[in-house]
Amino acid sequence: MSSATFLGMPPFPEAAEHAVRDARTRHNLHKATHTIRGKRDAVVGELGDDWARLRAEGEAVKTHTLRHLDHYLERLEESVQRAGGTVHWAADAAEANAIVTRLVRRTGETEVVKVKSMATQEIELNNALEAAGITAYETDLAELIVQLGEDLPSHILVPAIHLGRSQIREIFLDKMAEWGVPAPADLTDDPRALAEAARVHLRELFLRSKVAVSGANFAVADSGTLVVLESEGNGRMCLTLPETLISVVGIEKIVPTWSDLEVFLQLLPRSSTGERMNPYTSTWTGVTPGDGPQDFHLVLLDNGRTDVLADTVGRQALRCIRCSACLNICPVYERTGGHAYGSVYPGPIGAILTPQLHGMSSEVDRALPYASSLCGACYDVCPVAIDIPEVLVHLREQVASAPGHMGEKAMMAGAEAVFGSSTALDAAQRAAGLVGGAIPKHLPGTAGKWTDTRDLPEIPRGSFRQWWNEREEDR
Amino acid sequence: MRIALFITCVNDTLFPDTGRSVVRLLERLGHEVVFPTEQTCCGQMHYNTGYRRPAARLAVRFARTFDGADAVVVPSASCAAMIREHYPKLGRSGSRLSRRMADLGPRVYDLTEFLVDVLGVTDVGAYYPHKVVYHPTCHGLRSLGLGDRPYRLLRAVRGLELLELPGATECCGFGGTFSVKNGDVSAAMGFDKARHAMETGAEVLCAVDNSCLMHIGGTLSRQRSGLRIAHIAEILASTEKEYATT
Known about the structure:
The structure holds 2 protein chains of 2 kinds.
Chain A: H1 12-19, H2 23-45, H3 50-67, H4 69-82, E1 86-90, H5 93-107, E2 111-114, H6 118-122, H7 125-131, E3 135-138, H8 141-148, H9 165-179, H10 191-208, E4 211-214, E5 218-220, E6 225-230, H11 234-240, E7 244-250, E8 254-255, H12 261-272, E9 280-285, E10 295-301, H13 305-309, H14 325-329, H15 331-336, H16 347-358, H17 363-367, H18 377-381, H19 388-400, H20 406-419, H21 422-435, H22 448-451, H23 464-474
Parallel strand pairs in A: 1-10, 2-3, 2-4, 4-7, 5-8, 7-10
Antiparallel strand pairs in A: 5-6, 6-9
Helix pairs in contact in A: 3-12, 9-10, 16-19
Chain B: E1 2-5, H1 9-14, H2 16-28, E2 32-34, H3 44-49, H4 52-65, E3 72-74, H5 77-90, H6 96-104, E4 108-110, H7 111-118, E5 131-134, H8 138-143, H9 149-155, E6 161-163, H10 178-181, H11 183-199, E7 204-207, H12 210-222, E8 228-231, H13 232-237, H14 240-245
Parallel strand pairs in B: 1-2, 1-3, 3-4, 5-6, 5-7, 7-8
Helix pairs in contact in B: 4-6, 5-6, 11-12
């Protein structure tokens, strides 16, 4: 049993080159994204103009909270402590992992059950726990599939979106026995049979485990309440059955009051699963004597978020509620899948969030802002109106102003020189017209990325401006 | 009306027929077209690739060149969107660029917006006896919000049979430098767009952006598909008389 990692993956264009050739993944992704798109369109459409108002309200609540984050964080801390929980602050992934590991060790347990959580994926908590001799069991169906398959999540909401049910059947048959209750030998790829195998496998873990680790979709500053939205009820099992509950939550997940949830509990399910309401919404406030976990810890995670907050354009990415609508609509994501983004946050939101959280420290980070045609479909569907194309261009500016890419810089400078005067442009057009017919069908270098798959347009002998000037002279 | 034409660098250099069509169409509708010859490029390639300062310099050039124009018509939704949506962000507040663009920006139009909203025409007297599909390019669709304007113009063209393009609102995959920086994904998107167009049985795929058409057309041509591309201006400029000579 080993946990996979995104570390060491190639930059987006290279990963995508392989991904677009993977017929099975392309088929699975096309089918899944188009199905969710259709469902979302229906439940968003039925709200008419009210959707735009909800969206504006969601944006406003998040923007306000982020502007006064220091205030709301302290308020949340007070509220959680008042309700009997313990609050821990983690500046980065290492700190957060150390805190969680220490808290689990203190219980004497060597196993934890997990509620699906992006924050713990982001810090690669499972790997850290494994290194400390603690086994973390993913209990979300798709996360379970990914974990059993020693695979990586490829979608925020549907981590196993890249897999079809026949592949899931194979994984269950091969791997379930290593982790616990085995899959029945006669398991078929019928969705109900697969779900039943997972149910039986997980049920034993829920009943046995004394410690659970979760994230949260929202944290209410006023009351200290944490909120998880899910579809399967497995999260509810983890949140209620164990004795100890440790929740790792990004500091941007705060909303000021309980009534602010009203907006997000409408925005999130409609944007994510295309449902009016998700099947399970669990809320918990500290510790309730005699009911649920009696030891509750909240780990507030920064891990780059305050750096993002300092960027006046980029900070809007922190409004994200992890609904995945941008992934589902994205024509690039649809063709590459999530793994190509080299991060737990794939798709358009990942392309602006990952480089900002990491500080553009690697080649993978620096390639991500370019993993978009800037078509704008992500901005259209975003329930908190994150202008993803705007942030992508903003991050491209940071990449382009850093050292390196001399070829591109020379090309851009050359283009500016040509466009810097109409005389220079006219001269370039005349030169192109003269040699146009002699341009080879297949070009070397970067231009070859065009001619590999597409013909070049025919270069006309005369430009428009030549025609115009001749016409003016004839008048 | 005196209309200033911003042809765009792509049309000027690679698609002069589109420019000639715009001039022919607007003159046929009884308007005077001027072409300020100092114009070059809107700077979108620089801006979208992360080269903000060169883009700002080209924005200043545009604003100077078209200062005082009654209306600027652009046969490219993407360049019109660059000018209207992004120029105001390129100048510091209170700068000459932002003051000029606050005044000029609202009078910069994509061709189809100009025809429908300003001139108030949908039947431009065109004749084009072909089966046609229209691809709504992303910046026309989402930045400018062209809506049904291009469809209304096309439906009024005599002889033209407008077919429905499946997956019409999906990006074709051009995306400027995206087409080479992420050539494989761009090609995969372009192929799907080309396939959708081919499946309709259309003869011609039209759009309001020649840059997207260059990408889709290059894909179609590589497939030896026989489906050809045309800028919407070329369709709208076409009449029985001109049709016979082209």
